[in-house]
Amino acid sequence: MDQAPPRTMTASEGANWFFRGAATRLDLSDDLVTLLSAPYRELHVQIPVRMDNGELRVFTGFRVQHNGARGPYKGGIRFHPEANLDEVRALASLMTWKTAIVDIPFGGAKGGVQVDPRALSVGELQRLTRTYVENISHIIGVYRDIPAPDMGTDARTMGWMMDAYGKMHGHSPAIVTGKPIPMGGSRGRTEATGKGVAIVLGDTLQNLGRSRLATRVAIQGFGNVGSHAADAIAELGCRIVAVSDVAGGVRNPDGLDVPALREHFARTGRLEGFPGATSMSSEDVLYEDCDVLIPAALGEVIHADNWERVQAPLIIEAANHPVTAYADHQLAQRGVMVVPDILANAGGVLVSYFEWTQNIQQHRWTASRVETELEELLSSSYAEICARAAEGLPLRSAAFDVGVSRVVEAVEIRGIASSGVESLAA
Ligand code: NAD
């Protein structure tokens, strides 16, 4: 869409802006635009938790199912103090387009609980997780809606969720993905999103004819996605020149030794103090002098008031929705290339799909099979998007076109609504 978006929008308005651009390019009917602009179902639950000190605290949780035309709803659960319904709604819709882009048989969903998981004891966190699952259990299911980890949740959380669901419905490992490996988790799932970011970066550098060795990368976030992306990108041969997390960051223009940084972080719990590196703020990594910027933490970190400070000519969106629609438009005008979240972080949902199929078949794949299939599916999805972008579109618009067109095709086949538009992505 050529028209500039408003400077500020809510997260769901921002996600819808991109969808509406695709709807215009694909000439979708008004019925379809109405159907796909809003989620199918939103559940808002109370989560009462008896704290260790005897007090009862009531947390708030959500599960939003955006569209299930292509298969069971799929999407992560976020534990974050600022999780809110509007953001969860936006993230659920992005999952619909993401699963369609990588052509796996899922719809899109997202969940969130307003909690700082680091402020709870392990027992409190487990009770909260179990109660959340009990309270959303009537809308999830192995062929209905399959949660996964996101910010603030991990394999341990998924193990508790599987157990809580199994107590109600019988042993059901396929109810969540991202589980611990002994409980049916897939090899390679923990690393998958970060590894996928590196695959997408490698493909982008190849398309641009750029040397990996000459590429300087800055990463915001050193959690699941950021730390595994750093590992895999260092293995590609690129130089990681800056990394930050919520507490602060470190920079070294000559390159950070990522395995040593990981070891330092595991030992001290902080990035700062890493030998040979200088300290920086969490935010300053976004403005680092580098060739590639990878936001891998929160959403909407690049926005109307700071996009001008971004120096990188290439942004790979490892986090969900890290660049607002307004900033995206301005960056595009300046010639900055943005590889969108709905492709760049799709490695996680791809390996989640592999995990779900392994659970259903009661069969385990080797790590190398997971890695090979991840590379093949992600790279071929990227190539499809590049082919669409070659018609003169930014990568995000091309990705939305491919994803939306596949969802529309499924909606039409099911007889829910009609667009009269031929699928782009047959
Ligand atoms: P995580 O909880 O493991 O890590 C989050 C990281 O962000 C931590 O290092 C934290 O310190 C950092 N952070 C938080 N606030 C920050 C701030 N203000 N400034 C700088 N850093 C900050 O979460 P994750 O699973 O790595 O998810 C990160 C992003 O990737 C999220 O946007 C998530 O939606 C997205 N994502 C995750 C997956 C997955 O498989 N985990 C898949 C797709 C997308």
What characteristics describe this protein?
single chain; 426 residues; alpha/beta; Rossmann fold; seven-stranded mixed beta sheet; 13 helices; 43% helix; binds nicotinamide-adenine-dinucleotide
What does this structure look like?
Among the domains are: 39-183, 3-Layer(aba) Sandwich (Rossmann fold); 192-344, Rossmann fold (3-Layer(aba) Sandwich), CATH 3.40.50. By secondary structure, it is α/β, with parallel strands linked by helices. It has a seven-stranded mixed β-sheet, with helices on both faces. 54% of the residues are buried. The model has no long low-confidence stretch (mean pLDDT 96). It starts with 10 loop residues before the first helix and ends in a 13-residue tail after the last helix. The protein has helices spanning 11-25, 30-37, 85-101, 122-136, 155-169, 189-208, 224-236, 258-268, 325-333, 341-344, 347-361, 367-389, 395-413; strands at 41-50, 56-67, 73-80, 108-114, 145-149, 216-220, 239-245, 248-251, 278-280, 292-295, 314-316, 337-339. α1 (11-25) crosses α13 (395-413). α7 (224-236) links the parallel β6 and β7. The structure holds nicotinamide-adenine-dinucleotide. Nicotinamide-adenine-dinucleotide (NAD) binds next to α7 and β7.
Following the backbone from N to C, one meets helices and strands in this order, namely: HHEEEHEHEHHEHEEHEEEHEHHHH
The CATH homologous superfamily of the domain at 192-344: NAD(P)-binding Rossmann-like Domain
Tell me the distance between the termini.
24 Å
What is the radius of gyration?
21 Å
Query: Which molecules are bound in this entry?
Result: nicotinamide-adenine-dinucleotide
Low-confidence spans: pLDDT under 50, at least 5 residues? none
Overall strand count: 12
What is the name of the CATH topology of the domain at 192-344? Rossmann fold
> What is the CATH-assigned architecture of the domain at 192-344?
3-Layer(aba) Sandwich
Overall average pLDDT: 96
Helix % is: 40-55%
Outline, from the CA principal axes?
globular
> What is the count of DSSP helices, taking H or I runs of 4+ residues?
13
